[in-house]
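Example record for the data management plan.
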Amino acid sequence: MVWSAGVAAAEHLRRLSDAVVAAQRPIRILKAINWGQRVHEQFFKAGACELPRPEYPPLGFDPGEKARELRALSRRMRGHNPVEKLLRDKCAEYLTIVRMLEARATRRFYELSRQIYGEPRQRFPDHAVDNLAIARLWAARPRARAEEPCIPAEEAAEQVARICAPYLGGKVTVAVRSRLTANAASGATKISLKKGVLFTPRQVKALAHHEGLWHVLTSKNGFAQPVLTVLGVGLPRHVESQEGGGVVAEFLSGNITDERYIELGERTICVDMAARGADYLEVYRYLQSRFAPQRAAQLCERVFRGGVLTGGAPFTKDAAYQRGYCRTFNFLRAALEQRDVDLVRAFLCGKMSVDQAEQVRDLTEEGIVAGPVHLPAWFDDLDRLHAMVTHSVTMNRFSLPVIHRYYARRKVGRADPQDPGGWPGG
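Corresponding structural encoding:
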């Protein structure tokens, strides 16, 4: 639905959007739940056989006061237009996040995490596919050939900055920090790499496309909006598409490996294990059979940070990656198959769910949303992007199990080229 807004209405919406951006500023989810390096040091010092003992820092805001501020802000959004509804929904989402952070280290944290990020066994809304089944498929892929990590974080930071600079107008900072759970993280204009980590050349390029030319790029496009500045921090339920879109950027730029898919799959499997009662030590032992001990502990922290280490209540964000990846890629190929490049451009205007792209396109036509200032590297060559979609929709015509059976029969000498049933299309 297209909604028409005049200048006065646009100014009113801009004030409301700016107020939402200001209200969320002290709410930093990962900063509030990440563990310090000493937690892992003590864990290994004790022989990796005792539950870690994380201590969480102060939130930096009073949860009760922040909740009242968000409710009061929501009450200012009295209009029934689509923009104010989006802003009200965003206030409600931040209110849930505040309650989740207030409930760190309790089961309530997990229950609220599920509301925000979903859970491993959640089915896709646009297809009857089980998210956990995709995670298991990824985790079962053949491991990539060994690529030697040889690039220190400091050098990797310089390379990431060089890759991102032409696409972001040179306005991106890449720093090295010691207190990170992941090997890399990003904010609105800054990318951080974990101190002491060595990266492969492919990982450096993947980080540039994921963190810089997706997360930072969509933030910058959002904050450049004339009215809906909240696109800089994300519309409601944007996390799934934002995280999945980052992995899609790795794929479209040619910088992903099965090793990456394996890790993403294992992370979701571990969230499911913890949700079904496994404690930190059980999940750690599972991961240690697949990764080096330090990496296993790091991945295990991702599952249990903010939650309950004795099991049953993990942090569920990592379960959103398969759903986000599949839905974002399918959104892109559906739009391009319909020759609707403008819908893809609308999706690049800021941080949003794929489900909101059509509405954002309507708001672009009304002048409430401006087109993207920055475009990702994979959008440079539309002919190549269309060709990838053509490849994808072509291969959809074939059943891989049927093809497997065909070659299995050939292997034992029973395939008959004259028998239609012996061929993949039969």
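Summary line stored alongside the record: Residues 422-426 have pLDDT under 50 and may be disordered.
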